[in-house]
Specification:
4 strands, 18 helices
Length: about 425
């Protein structure tokens, strides 16, 4: 893939792992294991060869049918009366959705799956709500951001919002809902931008409670609130990458001064999220205006230097190391526009992470897809569109052409997908001045 030029917004555009705690029982563990083992053997993109029998082809159709039967059982489990069984079903779906593409299977059952997730979000425990929000996010990624994903988002968005702003809801559920709202809005970005504006405002209302008061004093964080503020800030910063110049200018003026004060937060992860967001906002500001400068940049650089060399023995060694590494990068970018480039390899391809914007987008997908992010970069047209990779490569002459064409035909030819792509390209262009 040709390397994108640094600083060009047109070159590109975290969910909690909701594992099931405790012993799920042998049958549920075996179900999860069976689903994943079938996916590892039933690839959508190449014929699987059985080396033990001299290269004899495995019956792909049979393997796929068995896999789908296991997934149907997982969906049934999410509707079970037992909370333990529902959690096991959600965890199995999370692993399956993140590890492989299931577009055909999910297109036919998206309403059923959405209904199951809606029930878990409305009536489940905090752990179940967190798991359901994560699975819904993966469902939107699987559906490719077209009509189906947008329809599902409109249905579940009020429920996700209600949980996020409910102070009595569990922190884990609220964090997961914050990430779901950010990612689902990002992948199904409506052409009129109304969803984007609403989502930005909602997420702002969450993390702005960490901002200093009128006297300039940071509030004392409540238990769990830094993690929630971190999730909301990261989801918000993902959506900021979609904003046109006129909207960005307003956001920069409003949030940059307040975020600078939050670098003094007592929570290391929130400090790091704030530092990365500041770097992203400065980068976007420089895209709009070449000589963009942060107000009181000297104080900012002094603060960044302090965090980049922090040797406070009261903090955990790993926390100190992580903080120093991140803030060295932020400082180098603020002072010299120097970004530490990263190359992500998958299959025979690579994608370059050469800006704070691309890093925020990649990190958001990596957080929800976990180890499956490389598989989705290789085969998921949604991620390939976002990172400018083009249609998935077909490397094996024995590929089932009808399966590949069905997936690509829907995603690349549907009006909704074209509109979303057009919208993303427009708002990336700093000449765009709408919203």
């Amino acid at each position: 893939m040709p390397r994108s030029k640094k600083g060009k917004r047109g070159s590109s555009k975290p969910g909690i792992k909701n594992g099931v705690k405790g012993d799920l029982g042998g049958s549920d563990d075996e179900l999860t294991s069976d689903v994943l083992s079938h996916y590892s053997s039933a690839s959508e993109t190449a014929s699987v060869m059985d080396e033990g029998t001299g290269g004899e082809q495995v019956d792909e159709l049979t393997a796929q049918e068995e896999t789908e039967d296991k997934l149907k059982q997982c969906i049934d489990n999410v509707m079970d009366k037992s909370s333990k069984t529902r959690l096991a079903g959600l965890e199995s779906l999370r692993q399956a959705f993140s590890s492989k593409l299931l577009y055909d299977f999910l297109t036919e059952r998206r309403l059923t799956v959405s209904d199951c997730l809606e029930r878990s979000l409305k009536k489940g425990s905090g752990e179940e709500q967190a798991a359901a929000a994560t699975v819904f996010t993966l469902l939107c990624i699987q559906l490719g951001g077209g009509d189906e994903a947008e329809e599902g988002f409109k249905i579940l968005r009020p429920i996700l919002t209600a949980i996020l702003i409910d102070n009595s809801a569990s922190i884990a559920a609220r964090q997961s809902c914050a990430r779901a709202l950010g990612m689902c809005c990002y992948v199904s970005a409506a052409e009129e931008g109304e969803d984007l504006i609403k989502s930005l405002a909602l997420l702002e209302s969450v993390f702005m409670s960490s901002y200093p008061n009128r006297e300039g004093t940071l509030p004392t964080p409540k238990p769990g609130s830094p993690g929630l503020h971190c999730a909301a800030l990261q989801a918000w910063s993902l959506l900021v990458t979609l904003c046109p110049a006129s909207r960005l200018t307003v956001l920069l003026d409003l949030h940059l001064p307040k975020l600078l004060a939050c670098l003094q937060s007592s929570d290391v992860n929130y400090r790091i999220a704030v530092g990365e967001t500041i770097a992203l906002l400065v980068e976007l500001g420089r895209d709009i205006e070449e000589d963009f400068e942060v107000e009181d940049s000297e104080s900012l650089c002094e603060c960044l230097k302090s965090l980049a060399t922090d040797g406070n023995k009261h903090r955990a060694k790993n926390d100190r190391r992580k903080q120093r590494s991140i803030f060295r990068e932020v400082l180098h970018y603020i002072e010299n526009e120097d970004f530490t480039e990263e190359k992500i390899r998958f299959g025979v391809e690579s994608v370059y992470i050469d800006s704070w914007m691309r890093r925020r987008i990649y990190d958001a997908f990596k957080e929800i897809l976990e180890s499956g992010v490389r598989h989705h970069l290789q085969f998921n047209p949604l991620l390939r569109d976002i990172f400018g990779l083009g249609p998935p490569l077909i490397l094996d002459a024995t590929v089932k052409a009808n399966k590949i064409s069905r997936f690509e035909k829907h995603l690349f030819n549907s009006a909704a997908f074209k509109a979303r792509t057009k919208q993303r390209n427009k708002v990336r262009d700093k000449r765009a001045d709408v919203m």
